Amino acid sequence: MTTVEFAEVSKHYGDVRAVDGVSLRVETGEFATILGPSGSGKTTMLSIIAGIAPPTSGAILIGGRDVTNLKAADRNVGLVFQSYALFPHMSVAENVAFPLKVRRVAKAEIAARVKEALALVRLEDYGGRKPSELSGGQQQRVALARAIVFKPDILLLDEPLAALDRKLREEVRAEIHALQRRLGITTLMVTHDQDEALSLSDRIVVLDQGRVQQIDTPFTAYHQPRNRFVAGFLGLANFLEGELQANGTSAVIRLASGERIACGAARSANGTVCGLLRPEDIRVSNGSGGRVSGKVKESVFFGESVRYAVALDSGFEIIAHVPGSRSKLPEGAHVNLDWEPDQVWLLPGET
User: How many CA atoms lie within 13 A of 130 on its CB side?
Assistant: First the structure.
């Protein structure tokens, strides 16, 4: 049983609070991701767990054991760096064997473990090569093998896919997910890439300015964010501010621009609210009907989809993301927008 816990952890650099009173628990075998913009404190949190940076206050527990004052070498933590950090003068096998040699493991056992680790990342035939002879994706897999060869209690991933191109990112992302599930190792990753976080994680921790904004499953954090920051960071968002007018099971948000936006009656009390409507939940048509109408101000082709910026008759702008790319409405086209009312999420405590 290997859990990871932050208990009111803070890390200050002078007046800068890189991590500010964070508490969280990652369960045994869970894949958790700390997600946030640059400077939010993600890498600092990873460094604290790894023992690279001591916290200013609070405690770190791994498997229920307080490791706050233990050296990095005594924490049995596997760490994969963004830059891979492979030794260029060593072969692949020597790089993977390095953590075992430091731990004075017997030679025969080292050979067996290195072979097993390279097989796990599908590089069993590459042991004799140097890192410079490998692709970026292969180097990342060597770094993974080195991080798991000594059977760590937890695995830490620091922006592991940032240096790869899009196609390689998708391939290595799938391999990381499969490897983590196969080993059942408790894993904590930091990234600023929402696609990585949403696709890999059992839970995500959304961080901003050193503080946790939300800890939830990817699905819940995306569709039911707790605040505007989470809503805006996890994908595109239409924010609909206005007066809620609820009547039984139906409700509308009356925008300052005059439009009446249908939403689910999530609150019984009327008042000022901010609704979230995801662009992909909006249907766009150039026929009749729809809840609101406007003109296409801008259209962006993504291959598998088209994104429209639609200026409503009042001038208020809504973004719609339409799957499929066999047809594309021209700029200036008159369109109608429609959605299911319960797809408008009222942000808790937002005005």
Answer: 6
**Residue type at 280?**
E
Which two tokens mark 315? 């001038």
pTM score, whole prediction: 0.88
Structure tokens at 184: 């059942």
Task: Give the per-residue pLDDT at 265.
Answer: 64
The number of residues making up the chain comes to 351
Map residue 40 onto helix, strand or coil. Answer: coil
- What CA–CA distance (Å, rounded) separates 148 from 308? 45
Q: What is the pLDDT of residue 267?
A: 56
**How much of the chain exceeds pLDDT 70, in percent?**
97
Instruction: Provide the pLDDT confidence category of residue 65 given band limits of 50, 70 and 90.
Output: very high
Locate all alpha helices (DSSP H) within 92-248, ordered by sequence: 92-102, 107-120, 136-148, 166-183, 194-200, 218-223, 228-233
Residue 147, Cβ density class (10 Å: 0-12 exposed, 13-18 middle, ≥19 buried): buried
- pLDDT tens digits for 13-59? 999 999 999 999 999 999 999 999 989 999 999 999 999 999 999 99
Q: Are 306 and 322 in contact (CB under 8 A)?
A: yes
Phi/psi-derived region of residue 141, left when phi > 0, alpha when psi is between -120 and 50, beta in every other case: alpha
How many Cβ atoms from other residues are within 10 Å of residue 72's Cβ? 15
User: What does the angle CA 149 – CA 155 – CA 160 come to, to the nearest 5 degrees?
Assistant: 100
Measure the CA angle with vertex 136, ends 184 and 164; round to 5°.
80
Q: How many helices (H) and strands (E) does the chain have?
A: 8, 20
Please write the tens of the pLDDT for every residue from 290-328: 889 999 999 999 888 999 999 998 899 999 999 876 778
Please state the rounded mean pLDDT for residues 229-257: 89
* Contact by Cβ (8 Å): 192, 38: yes
